[in-house]
Amino acid sequence: MPITFADPAAFTHAQLEEGTDFAPKFDAAGLVTVVTVEAGSNEVLMLAHMNAQALALTLETGIAHYWSRSRRALWKKGESSGEIQEVVELRTDCDQDAMVLVVRQTGRGAACHTGRKSCFYRRAVVAGNQVQLQDTGLPRLFDPAQIYKGH
């Protein structure tokens, strides 16, 4: 039997914030924002979105699934690269419109399609009146040209 979610409109503000009913608030596009962090280190690996199907599959299988806004498709993380994310815990914020997914990153340990551990491998640096991106030195754990050839 597939997982379903309570309708947030059926609850008061207090019930959403303090209750035990899981009633994710999807936005107008049917998505909820998800910050994915690594279990143990709590390092932010990526930011993505889930629709109801991706959220249900994530909870049912224990493997992270997302909704790709660019491809407009369901996306099982690591399906092409082997960099599967095993769910340790899913948390929601106070009003249930954002999630934190705590995962064990498998494979070579790369959550980013660029081959790095984290998608957050650059920092913004102010130089005079301009802002530039500076690489943090996070190494590539795989060559994306080899992994995604033919995709």
List keywords for this structure.
four-stranded mixed β-sheet; alpha+beta; single chain; 151 residues; two-stranded antiparallel sheet; globular; Ubiquitin-like (UB roll)
Gross geometry: globular
Query: What integer value in Å does the Rg equal?
Result: 17 Å
Q: Which structural class is indicated by helix and strand composition?
A: alpha+beta
As a percent range, the share of strand residues is 25-35%
Helix content: 10-25%
Average pLDDT rating: 96
Question: How many H/I helices?
Answer: 3
In total, the number of domains comes to: 1
Widest beta sheet: strand line-up: 2-1-6-5
User: Spans of 5+ residues with little confidence (pLDDT < 50)?
Assistant: none
Give the termini distance in whole angstroms: 33 Å
**Count of individual beta strands:** 8
What is the succession of H and E elements?
A: HEEHEEEEEEH
Kindly identify the CATH topology.
Answer: Ubiquitin-like (UB roll)
Tell me the name of the CATH homologous superfamily: Phosphoribosyl-AMP cyclohydrolase
Main CATH class: Alpha Beta
Q: Main beta sheet: strand number and arrangement?
A: 4 strands, mixed
CATH A-level architecture:
Roll
